[in-house]
Amino acid sequence: MVAALVQAAGDSPIGTALSLAVPSEYSHLIQKAGRTCPEVSPNLLAALLSTESNFNPKAQSPVGAQGIAQFMPSTWESHGIDANGDGRRDVWDPEDAIPSSAKYLCTIAKEVADVPGDKQQNMLAAYNAGSGAVRQYGGVPPYKETQGYVRAITDLANQPTNGGSGGAATVVNAAKAMIGTPYSWGGGDANGPSTGSCCSPNGHSGGDIKGFDCSGLTLYAYSKVGIYLPRTAAEQYAASEPVEPGDVRPGDLVFYGSSASGIHHVGIYVGNGWMIDAPRPGKNVRYSPLDTMPDLYGVARPHKKKEI
């Protein structure tokens, strides 16, 4: 069951439901900066910005990454440029940050140019995990988050940048925007991350952590399309229609457990056998493969009747 579902899910690329809708105010910047070097294209740059910040120029991650391209301050200090010529290098200004992102991609592409494998994928992996990690492992490093990051951007980049987004894209983009948010047992609601409660089956408390647990994340993402899910993973499965392996689509919910009443985990499918989930205490919201747990129970799609 698990192997068949993972294989079938992998046949449906993320781009099927995530045709990129680039905000009009950034389209010309992306078109121009996306031709900085052969390894960067406008589609790839748009996919990276969508994944990093969902095109939010004021985005700030829990670890301190800033702006539409999510530069860490030290990286911006060494690689940010005054692209619009106003005399300031401003990480919060897309007119500086988008060209700086393309220039930085081209710089790290040169740094890993002699590493075996796909040059674009190695470049993206270096953007996420650092050039040193790519060189150390001779390609995309064996980090689940980095592998999911590379796969998601690559698939998304292969789709037109002017397509419609749709409800599934809204759900997935809402979850993507929360990548890096801490896990908090009982945390998260329709308004976003929140402090959780005590205690998980292993005694972990979310009372002093602002973030999401698995079902809090899915509840939040689906609220963005007006579907208000119940609080627990098992209740969310009961509020959804099971999906056959051959019909799995981005935005569907992936459930884990030994039975419908014993479901203990849920994530949001994003394509090619990957999901976004809040995995467990001590971890952050991330990309995870569907076989990250051995008890994958099934995939389901929330009922439309749950809309309010």
Question: What attributes characterize this protein structure?
Answer:
308 residues; 8 strands; six-stranded antiparallel beta sheet; endopeptidase fold (from Nostoc punctiforme); 2 domains; Lysozyme; alpha+beta
Give an overview of the whole structure.
This protein is an alpha+beta fold. It folds into 2 domains: 19-157, Orthogonal Bundle (Lysozyme), CATH 1.10.530; 166-306, endopeptidase fold (from Nostoc punctiforme) (Alpha-Beta Complex). It has helices at residues 2-10, 24-33, 42-53, 73-79, 94-111, 119-129, 131-137, 144-157, 166-176, 214-223, 233-238, and strands spanning 194-195, 210-211, 240-243, 253-256, 265-271, 274-277, 286-289, 296-302. Strand 4 (253-256) and strand 5 (265-271) form a beta hairpin. Helix 3 (42-53) crosses helix 8, helix 6 (119-129) packs across helix 7 (131-137) and helix 6 (119-129) crosses helix 8 (144-157).
